[in-house]
Amino acid sequence: MCDCCVVEKDIYLPEMATVNKAELMNETEVYLHLSMDGEALQYKPGQFVEVSVAGIGEAPISISSSPTQEGFELVVRKIGNVTNKVYQLQPGDKLGIRGAYGEGCYPTEEMKGKDLVFICGGIGLVPQRSFINYVLDNRSDYGSVTVLSGTKSHTLRLFIDELELLDQRDDINLFETVDEAHEDWNGNVGVVTKLIPKIESDFSSTKFFICGPPIMYKFVLMGLEEKNVPHDNIYVNLERKMKCGVGKCGHCQMNDKYVCVDGPVFRYSDLGSVPEAI
Ligand SMILES: Cc1cc2nc3c(=O)[nH]c(=O)nc-3n(C[C@H](O)[C@H](O)[C@H](O)COP(=O)(O)OP(=O)(O)OC[C@H]3O[C@@H](n4cnc5c(N)ncnc54)[C@H](O)[C@@H]3O)c2cc1C
Ligand code: FES
Fold first, then answer.
1. Which residues have C-beta atoms less than 6 Å from ligand 1?
2. Closest-lying ligand 1 atom to the alpha carbon of residue 74
3. What is d(CA 95, CA 10) in angstroms, rounded to the nearest whole number?
4. Rounded distance from Cα 259 to ligand 2 centre (Å)
5. What ligand has the least distance to the C-alpha of 105?
6. Rounded CA gap, 13 and 27, in Å?
7. Cα–Cα distance between 86 and 78 in angstroms, integer?
8. 3-state secondary structure of 172
9. Residue 266 has what pLDDT?
10. Selection from 85, 122, 112 nearest residue 239 by Cα
């Protein structure tokens, strides 16, 4: 075939995926396990996909699974047009997928041999889980692993069974907290920054990964500043409103960076600051 006969793939055209599993996690979030109908999705921890519902639109959603696992997993919070439809999906239903996108993903190779701390707020656990599970599937490649997870209330905790399994492992330190005290919750109460003193690894060399609601970054970064953590050792996962997902429309621009291409995971020292609102 000559060059002029080669039809370029339309980057805006989704491929179809089938929902294998759909489980409501609470009143607002659904967990989905999917497989592409054609070629398997190639992705790295920290990347996202553009999810589309015919006749409604698209939404960027982080991949929550590790590429070491079969198929891929998403957790979607219903907030508007697309996500409300996704929340209602059942096994066997189809979903449009573009991606995976985001060249700025978790530096899985560079982190080998390092002590890692993941600080997650609410649904921020979802993208972090992709790297956490990757590390667990390659456990001997990494140093100590600590996960701090904060949720508004105990009823909104995500992946409860998995967190309980993590808690039982002796090669991972898990600390959880909830903002609101409740008689059914015996654990820590307070915001996620309260857990920072529980970190046992060396603050000067440990690598920190932060993902949560915009307001959380300010306080977590202040907490790490107090411990003199070098900015080079901090990674933040940012969300901006997106349209194309591939660096063409400029919707996600933040200073000189496009979050969809250069992120969504950034080294803190490469950013001037972290925005408090999207
Ligand atoms: C890189 C990236 C990864 C993401 N990962 C996930 C994920 O794993 N799971 C998940 O549930 N969501 C995730 N989001 C957020 C998700 O993309 C939005 O919630 C979604 O686009 C809303 O689409 P909608 O059509 O349902 O809502 P719309 O009908 O477009 O909007 C409904 C309302 O929500 C507001 N809104 C739109 N986008 C956002 C947003 N990003 N954050 C807060 N409010 C918003 C709108 O201003 C409007 O008020 C991610 C966003 C980005 C950029
Ligand atoms: S979403 Fe279009 S440039 Fe990033």
1. 48, 57, 59-62, 75-77, 79-83, 123, 126, 239-242, 264, 278
2. 8
3. 18
4. 7
5. 1
6. 31
7. 8
8. coil
9. 96
10. 122
pLDDT at 277 over 60: no
Q: Which amino acid is residue 278, in one-letter code?
A: I
Q: Are 147 and 173 in contact (CB under 8 A)?
A: yes
Instruction: Give the β-pairing of 57-62 and 94-101.
Output: unpaired
User: Residues 270, 263: contact at Cβ < 8 Å?
Assistant: no
Q: Using an 8 Å Cβ cutoff, are 268 and 231 in contact? A: yes
User: 61: closest CA among 91, 20, 17, 92?
Assistant: 17
Ordered alpha helix ranges (H), the chain: 81-87, 125-137, 160-168, 214-226, 259-262
CA neighbor of 41 nearest in space, from 104, 130, 129, 158: 130
What gap in Å lies between CA 269 and CA 79, rounded to an integer?
A: 32
**Mean residue pLDDT across the chain:** 94
106 neighbors 100 (Cβ within 8 angstroms): no
pLDDT tens-digit profile of 147-182? 999 999 999 999 999 999 999 999 999 999 999 888
- Give dist(CA 191, CA 151) in Å, integer: 8
**What letter does residue 264 receive in the DSSP assignment?**
B
Residues in contact with ligand 2 by the CB-under-6-Å rule are 242-245, 247-252, 258, 260
Residue 189 has pLDDT above 60, yes or no: yes
Contact status, residue 227 vs residue 193, Cβ threshold 8 Å: no
